[in-house]
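sry for the spam today, last one i promise. struct tokens for design, 661 residues
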């Protein structure tokens, strides 16, 4: 069964939701909004996917379920879709816009036994037990397909993703670490040998492992990268707020509306689309699944970003003095100058809302669990940090209000800590922390003196955006004594910041700036050049005279691949032009290739995915050539030349192809 505990006091957790028992084995669960999604594997009643409405945790409601399957073992919820790892049937995708009537969208039959699934943008990663991991393209959930795989030595059970580094709990084989920068060609980075790894999770730059012998923690790669700039884009746009989902960055762009960028290569962000119709000054936004809600003072714009390169409008909702937005399941929470409310987006084409009033100039909000956190930029001393119990969506109950001298612009809550951004135009601003373990009785942590407009928490770290001094990284291990460890002045117009994968993405007022935050194994390399060489790749003992090399690779900005081939076992190497027929300087019967991989930065590398060589040689005749004709008087050399020509003409020109991956 499943229960819900109040962990305000971690040493004395209290059950607050009556246990709900199921007829199968509980193998996974996930929250989105006020719904709890449960995997109930091996259900005799075929009800292995259940949804519980926990709006009131003391009175949970188990929703009826029309989707029947006994096999749901793992699940991930992303926007309006549920991704189900269903054992022998693979990956199933459901539309859960109406949680009381989920409808099947697509099925991907995986070769193994689907145990777990995680989603990052347009990709789903499936732990497929004996078949390792499968990578599925879900950019269109209605036409999903496998695009890559890696067969781990053990049984892949659980997954965690940090940027392009995939961690696989591989049972008896330990923890497998893969580079999935190129989803079609995952590459093994390392294996951590532990006795039977059951599960894996991440906390900032720390990977946590549950094994049969206990819990282990490891630092990812080389740790923190200290905010090294890696990429940027200007384009003449305005950049007020930013979120990243998968390989796409979404920007609230003032009069330019909504911008989307492909950030699959953070060193080279690529502009995708711009939605600006009817938008006067887009200030804030949030994204969940295929929906973006864009905020401007007079409206909320609900946009369809299923295809980020072709943004479509669902609807624009006229409003007044809107300031911020937060997507939470089917509810879109928002703040306006003197209050907050929500819009139900179960049907993004309709309008169903509720709002209540407090404060004088509310500027930002965050939702965690059953609590709503809002901040006020009232410009002087007075109430400016509010907490409301929203267990009853139609009757908010204020649990706490804190008075400050503040110009708040942002708030984020992570676990039991609230982070506030304050930018006082006349005095030094603050980045502040509060312990909100008990939302009815919070306690102050610490103030960092900088003019902070945006905050984002990442594990034990806090990233702040300061429009004057840039982006800073702070250690929050002790929230009562914050320490600054790095600052990037390259983003000295920073209005907002978010963290996704290994990078911090900054809305820098006139540009998008991308900073390297974590030196994870999947995106940290050795600078300079490295040589990769093959052994013999041909299957003939005859003399090879010509060959053509072709390849497939990813070559990010600042990287290169140079190829050479040898027909004499590596004694002589010739530079070759890929795709062009090459005549060897020294023909021979031992064909090899080598590649020089070069990068100007430790943050990116060329990646050779596949290579093919077509080579040519002559097969000697199987019968001896006929004897030369009798000599002709006066022409002693003609017969010899003619015999040579005849002998050559009996040879068979053979083309052989070798493919190396």
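last one done:
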């Amino acid at each position: 069964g499943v229960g819900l505990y109040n962990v305000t006091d971690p040493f004395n957790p209290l059950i607050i939701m009556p246990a709900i028992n199921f007829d199968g084995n509980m193998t996974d669960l996930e929250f989105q909004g006020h719904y709890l999604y449960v995997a109930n594997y091996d259900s005799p009643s075929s009800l292995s996917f259940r949804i519980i409405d926990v709006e009131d945790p003391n009175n949970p409601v188990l929703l009826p379920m029309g989707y029947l399957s006994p096999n749901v073992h793992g699940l991930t919820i992303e926007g309006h879709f549920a991704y189900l790892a269903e054992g022998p049937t693979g990956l199933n995708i459901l539309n859960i816009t109406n949680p009381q009537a989920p409808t099947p969208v697509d099925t991907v039959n995986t070769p193994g036994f689907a145990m777990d699934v995680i989603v990052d943008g347009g990709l789903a990663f499936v732990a497929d037990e004996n078949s390792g991991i499968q990578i599925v393209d879900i950019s269109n959930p209605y036409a999903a397909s496998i695009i890559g795989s890696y067969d781990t030595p053990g049984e892949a059970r659980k997954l965690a993703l940090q940027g392009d580094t995939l961690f696989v709990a591989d049972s008896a084989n330990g923890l497998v670490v893969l580079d999935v920068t190129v989803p079609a060609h995952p590459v093994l980075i390392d294996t951590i040998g532990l006795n039977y790894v059951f599960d894996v999770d991440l906390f900032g730059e720390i990977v946590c492992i549950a094994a049969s012998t206990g819990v282990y923690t490891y630092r990812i790669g080389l740790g923190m990268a200290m905010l090294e700039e890696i990429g940027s884009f200007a384009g003449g746009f305005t950049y007020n707020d930013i979120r990243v989902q998968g390989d796409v960055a979404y920007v609230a762009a003032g009069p330019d509306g909504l911008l989307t960028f492909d950030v699959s290569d953070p060193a080279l962000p690529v502009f995708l689309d711009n939605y600006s119709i009817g938008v006067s000054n887009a200030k804030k936004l949030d994204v969940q699944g295929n929906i973006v809600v864009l905020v401007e003072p007079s409206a909320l714009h609900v946009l369809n970003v299923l295809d980020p390169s072709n943004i479509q409008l669902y609807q624009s909702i006229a409003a007044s003095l809107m300031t911020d937005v937060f997507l939470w399941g089917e509810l879109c929470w928002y703040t306006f100058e003197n209050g907050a409310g929500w819009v139900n987006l179960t049907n993004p084409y309709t309008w169903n809302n509720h709002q209540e009033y407090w404060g004088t100039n509310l500027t930002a909000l965050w939702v965690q669990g059953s609590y709503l956190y809002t901040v006020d930029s009232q410009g002087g001393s007075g109430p400016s940090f509010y907490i409301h119990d929203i267990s009853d969506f139609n009757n908010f109950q204020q649990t706490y209000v804190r008075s400050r001298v503040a110009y708040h612009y942002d708030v984020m809550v992570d676990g039991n800590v609230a982070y506030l951004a304050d930018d006082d135009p006349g005095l030094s601003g603050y980045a502040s922390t509060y312990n909100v373990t008990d939302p009815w009785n919070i306690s102050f942590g610490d103030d960092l003196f900088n003019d902070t407009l945006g905050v984002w928490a990442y594990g034990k770290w806090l990233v702040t955006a300061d429009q004057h001094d840039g982006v800073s990284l702070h250690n929050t291990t002790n929230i009562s004594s914050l320490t600054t460890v790095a600052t990037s002045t390259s983003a000295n117009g920073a209005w907002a910041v978010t963290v996704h994968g290994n990078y911090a993405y900054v809305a820098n007022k006139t540009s998008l700036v991308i900073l390297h935050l974590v030196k994870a194994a999947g995106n940290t390399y050795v600078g300079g050049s490295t040589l990769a060489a093959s052994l013999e790749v041909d299957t003939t003992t005859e003399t090879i005279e010509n060959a053509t090399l072709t390849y497939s690779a990813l070559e990010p900005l600042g990287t290169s691949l140079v190829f050479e081939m040898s027909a004499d076992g590596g004694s002589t190497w010739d530079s070759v032009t890929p795709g062009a027929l090459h005549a060897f300087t020294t023909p021979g019967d031992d064909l090899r290739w080598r590649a020089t991989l070069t990068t100007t930065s430790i943050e990116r590398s060329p990646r050779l995915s596949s290579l093919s060589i077509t080579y040519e040689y002559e097969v000697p005749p199987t019968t001896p050539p006929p004897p030369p004709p009798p000599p002709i008087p006066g022409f002693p050399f003609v017969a010899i030349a003619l015999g040579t020509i005849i002998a050559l003409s009996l040879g068979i020109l053979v083309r052989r192809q070798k493919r190396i991956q």
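Residues 638-649 form the longest helix (12 residues). ok im logging off now
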